[in-house]
Amino acid sequence: MIPVKAIAVDDEPGVLLLLKSILCELDHIQLVGTAENAADTFRLINDLKPDLALLDIELPDMKGINLAEKILELKPDLYIIFITAHKEYCLEAYRIYAYDYILKPIDKERIKNTLCRIQKALYAPERLLAKIASCLQNTKLAINSGYERVFLNINDICYLEKHGRHTILHCVNGDHTVGDTLQNFEQKLGTRFFRSHKSYIINIEQVERVVNLSGSSYYEVKFKKNRGKALLSRDRVHTLVNLLES
Fold first, then answer.
1. Which terminus of the chain has a smaller tally of CB atoms within 10 A, N or C?
2. Where are the CATH 2.40.50.1020 domain residues in the chain?
3. How do 52-55 and 79-84 pair as beta strands?
């Protein structure tokens, strides 16, 4: 199993030492870097691409909440755990989908349990990845578009969008609107396609980037060969990113 890469950020060296000792007791969790301020944290994110960050709320050069918002723009799939002596920022922390909010003095078992849950979440898609790897051959999809029977190369479909009682297939060479449901297409298209949102199915082979929408409860998916955009639910972002990085 590939180690989960973690960074720890706190302006108290003693706290960093404690976090290091806790992480050293866990299998497959690797502390790859520490920082005592926001500026060094940005460098760690850019250079090391960690899977999770343990953040203090009060840093000398930036509030931890603001830091979390900015580093999520750099790495939208980052798991964030806040570790702080301040209760009053709890609601703000969960607004940006922090995985946990742990108050000082640090509860060692609480941190271990949280890290184990993150580890399980990161590796949940492994069986799905193996299945996808065996199913990436080119096939055709037949649809009724107006008075025509159209045969589409499946990999030319960038994403599908629910539109009232219809479904729009956004393709490399144009769009097709059909009177069929997303659920039916989900069964037909197979594992190269991913249900990113209740109204969208995306082709993981066509994804170019995932964008964190500031102030929104969703991410945005952009594609290599189509200018359209699909929504991605936050509870699905980690699974998608693991699929894209495989």
1. N
2. 131-244
3. parallel
> How far is 168 from 112, CA to CA, in rounded Å?
45
Q: Which residues, 6+ apart, have CB-to-CB distance to 22 below 8 Å?
A: 106, 108, 111, 112
Instruction: List, for residues 152-184, the tens digit of each pLDDT value.
Output: 999 899 999 999 889 999 999 999 999 888 888
Distance CA 168, CA 161 (A): 5
Question: The dihedral of CA 50, 47, 8, 14: what is its sign?
Answer: positive
For the four alpha carbons of 42, 44, 47 and 51, in that order, the dihedral sign comes to negative
Domain at 4-123, CATH class: alpha beta
The CATH H-level (homologous superfamily) assignment of domain 131-244 is: LytTr DNA-binding domain (2.40.50.1020)
- Every domain range in the chain assigned CATH 3.40.50.2300: 4-123
